[in-house]
Design brief:
Jelly Rolls, six-stranded antiparallel sheet, alpha+beta, 22% helix, elongated, 4 helices
Length: 202
């Protein structure tokens, strides 16, 4: 068999180089995908069990939103992620964090966040800690017990309110969330139920 001519050999080498380069680019994109921070945290890094959803968050300051089955329609636009239900006595938080969104037009220099919570009953876990953050800044930690539901009030500092520009992203981190079944994934952990929530001008 006659050897390949030099031009043909160079063409084949060039094609092989292009294929190898293409494969390297694909591999790099797999390692460094151009995705949103929320997508990366949930699907790639797995640093959260709460995948941001594009809910409107439409809210009027001073309104107490019922998160039991009676308030289903009013609560739905505020539930960003990490919630299941509602059931008769509230929305179950599922996973290790849950989020709410409040978008309002009324002016406010400072706010007070009111939450009514109840812990899921478990003999080996009588309480649940809830770390509360507003727009990425922690504003307090509360400890929730089982029945009856407990009401908590947390001030939202004026600097956070001013920077929020009418949009509060509320995150509840749940460090004590437990697996109900041995094979449950982290995004099925249980901790608390949310009964009601409100933001009042302070």
């Amino acid at each position: 068999m006659s050897p390949l001519s030099s031009p043909l050999r160079l063409t084949l080498y060039g094609l092989a180089g292009i294929v190898a380069l293409f494969e390297l680019v694909v591999f790099w994109l797999m390692l460094q995908p151009n995705v949103s921070a929320d997508y990366r945290a949930y699907y790639i890094d797995k640093t959260t069990t709460c995948m941001n959803q594009p809910v409107a968050g439409t809210y009027t300051l001073g309104t107490v939103v019922d998160f039991t089955d009676k308030g289903r329609e009013a609560a739905k636009p505020l539930r960003v992620c990490g919630w299941e239900g509602p059931v008769g006595d509230g929305n179950h938080a599922v996973g290790t964090s849950a989020r709410l969104r409040f978008v309002y037009e009324q002016p406010a220099a400072a706010l007070t966040l009111d939450l009514t919570l109840v812990a899921v009953k478990r003999d080996n876990q009588p309480t649940q800690r809830v770390v509360v953050s507003v727009n990425g800044t922690e504003i307090g930690t509360v400890t929730v017990t089982a029945d009856p539901p407990q009401a908590f009030s947390l001030p939202v500092p004026p600097d956070l309110v001013a920077a929020a520009n009418g949009r509060i992203e509320l995150e509840l981190d749940l460090p004590d969330a437990i697996k109900v079944g041995n094979t449950d994934p982290d995004n099925r952990r249980r901790s608390i139920k949310l009964v009601s929530a409100a933001l009042f001008p302070a």
